[in-house]
Write a structure and sequence with these properties.
Layout: H1 2-10, E1 54-58, E2 61-65, E3 72-74, E4 77-79, H2 85-98, H3 105-115, E5 116-117, H4 121-138, E6 145-154, E7 158-168, E8 174-186, E9 189-193, E10 204-207, E11 214-215
Parallel strand pairs: 5-9
Antiparallel strand pairs: 1-2, 3-4, 6-7, 6-11, 7-8, 8-9, 8-10
Protein name: DUF8175 domain-containing protein
Pfam family, one: DUF8175
InterPro entries: DUF8175
């Protein structure tokens, strides 16, 4: 029950996680089994510059952009990420957030259809649509903040990160969750790999403190 409350406060896409976006769908599981495999060789902890990030408002949620992407924005859609560690990081955040159920179908449906791959992509599409209907009926509009990340591995073909997001929990307490997300380079851009069973709960775990994560600079 404690885990359920924690994850309810943090997700969406999800959350992400991301966030009201990265971990919001993870509200009904008691266990999480993050799974992702990154081919070797890879650079486990690539260097990523954060000081020149620009933060844009996405329906009340700040999202970062840089020269590494997103280079193409069409309404609420975002694509065009560089084949670099920072491009992979930005792709993880933007795709996961836009694949969340709190947005309108015009946002998450094409995002999942065109920017999410893997055998569990159909299940994710179905689950996100169902989650959207449920959230709309409950009028749930909680948002999360992307606080930081932790590299699991990077190569020019694939990358895996744990994305740290925080949001309001019970009694207005801040709660955190880490969502493990893999991206693969395909057809000239990064594509997110759908979580096991199409459920972000299988990739999200509650986090008590941000220790071990690289935090984004304070925005002010």
């Amino acid at each position: 029950m404690i885990r359920r409350r924690v994850l309810t406060g943090v997700h969406a896409a999800v959350t992400l996680t991301l966030a009201g976006a990265l971990v919001q769908q993870a509200t009904h599981h008691e266990t999480a089994v993050p799974r992702t495999v990154v081919p070797t060789p890879f650079e486990a902890v690539p260097s990523v510059a954060l000081t020149d990030l620009v933060w844009d408002d996405f329906h009340g949620m700040p999202l970062p952009r840089a020269s590494d992407g997103p280079r193409r924005r069409d309404g609420d859609r975002a694509s065009g990420f560089a084949r670099t560690p920072r491009g992979a990081l930005l792709a993880v955040i933007h795709i996961a957030v836009r694949a969340a159920p709190q947005w309108e179908p015009a946002v998450f449906e094409p995002t999942i259809d065109q920017q999410v791959i893997g055998p569990d992509q159909p299940q994710l599409a179905t689950a996100t649509g169902t989650g959207h209907d449920r959230l709309r009926k409950r009028d749930v509009r909680a948002f999360a903040t992307v606080e930081g990340f932790r590299w699991l591995g990077y190569s020019p073909d694939a990358a895996t990160l744990d994305v740290l997001s925080s949001g309001p929990g019970d009694d207005d307490l801040t709660v955190r969750a880490a969502t493990r997300i893999e991206v693969q380079w395909k057809d000239g851009d990064w594509r997110a790999v759908a979580p096991l069973g199409g459920d972000w709960a299988n990739a999200a775990v509650p986090v008590g403190a941000p220790d071990g994560f690289t935090l984004f600079p304070v925005r002010g």
